Input
Amino acid sequence: MLVHKKKRPWYPIQTPLTSLIDIVFMLLIYFLLTTNFMVDEGIKIKLPQARASASITQEEITVYVDQEGRFFIKNEQVAEDRLFSQLKTLIGSQTDALVMVKADRLTEVSKAVKAMDLAKAAGAERLCLATEKE
Output
């Protein structure tokens, strides 16, 4: 007498994808929330490069000097004779005001120095000339 084993039906193995999808979505949310979406927009200038530079985390008043030597504050062009009064109003009564001058690398140095002089005269306690890291 021959005994045959009863054949069992073949069940394919299914991996649980729910937990894998949850992890992928959590990683996606993490990277979306931690990515810095702030983009400097406005005046197109090419900053000079420096080997040693430090990042500034405090809010600052930024004066842009473009290639033609025009001054900008908050993406609005300011005439040279009105720059002092604009800076004076922005600085106000801040005791530790930081004025950052972002001058194009092809602009005349005298224009950047003029912006720094006017900022100092307007009451800026600290001045900074922005550069890019090489």
Q: What stands out?
A: Helices lie at 18-34, 80-91, 109-121.
